[in-house]
Design a protein that fits this description.
276 residues, mainly beta
């Protein structure tokens, strides 16, 4: 057998080496989890923009949501076809078309059964008459008031003025108290910075007819909260909705508060065109 020389042996060894691996990117797949995708270099906007934004007033963080009559419809919601009150946004979402909801908030004070203690109208049906009685608690800190509306016209009005001036039943309405701002002035019982500080929410309507819903993200006094409506939002009339149970459902930001069982709800829906 003829022996190979050194050069021939070197050539034969080179021919038997495996081909080098390509150094391009490799996609790794975890079983059951799909491909691992690279991180996006730009933020992805949600399919629907939120009607709510984070703001701050006098050092207090707030969430401010705007209902515009040109693109929103406001309704009240308590229960499904005469059943028990929803008591939560989760229950409301199971009963309605959640995809049309821009946002929702708790909408007025209620008893232990979740039913309103003051004036309440849903889809033009009055379920509770105007409550003008005296008593203790925030609801009876006069003047209290009513948030109501029909079509694209929404208003906040003190209860006594509502009783004397509003003859036609609105499409929706809910009574709460106290009023935060009355004709551009703060409620007469409010101190500039009182000792009572809680999570609070309220609603006011500006000169352009837009409804401003605000919920505090930290405890806030009545005085400071009311000043935001008067000085920050320029709403001549604003109504306190409730205290520590105050909650917001903002589907666009995947927020759905569940602090405590709720009563009446105010629902803001997106519509294709202006409400007549």
């Amino acid at each position: 057998m003829k022996r190979l020389g050194p050069i021939a042996l070197a050539l034969l060894a080179a021919c038997n080496q495996p081909a080098p691996e390509k150094t391009g990117p490799v996609t790794r797949i975890e079983i059951g989890k799909g491909a691992v995708k690279p991180k996006a270099t730009a933020s992805v906007k949600p399919a629907v923009s939120s009607a709510c934004e984070a703001v701050s007033f006098e050092g207090v963080p707030l969430t401010h949501c705007v209902a515009d009559p040109a693109r929103h419809r406001i309704t009240t919601a308590l229960a499904n076809e005469g059943g028990p009150p929803y008591r939560s946004f989760a229950e409301l979402g199971r009963a309605v078309k959640a995809k049309t909801i821009a946002f929702a908030v708790n909408g007025g004070m209620f008893g232990e059964d979740g039913k309103p203690i003051g004036y309440y109208v849903e889809e033009s049906n009055r379920l509770k008459q105007l409550n003008r009685a005296d008593g203790g608690g925030n609801f009876h800190l006069k003047p209290n008031g009513v948030f109501f509306g029909t079509g694209a016209k929404w208003q906040v009005m003190p209860s006594e003025a509502f009783n004397s001036k509003v003859g036609d039943r609105p499409a929706f309405g809910t009574q709460s108290g106290p009023m935060l701002v009355i004709d551009g002035k703060l409620h007469p019982e409010f101190a500039e910075e009182g000792p009572s500080k809680l999570i609070r929410n309220g609603v006011g309507v500006d000169a352009a007819g837009r409804a401003h819903f605000v919920i505090s993200e930290a405890p806030v006094s009545f005085g400071r909260f009311a000043r935001y409506f008067r000085d920050g939002l320029k709403t001549p009339n604003a109504l306190y909705l409730d205290g520590s149970v105050s909650s917001l459902w903002d589907p666009a930001s995947s927020r759905q508060d569940a602090r405590a069982p709720l009563g009446p709800l105010i629902v803001v829906e997106t519509v294709a065109k202006a409400v007549p």
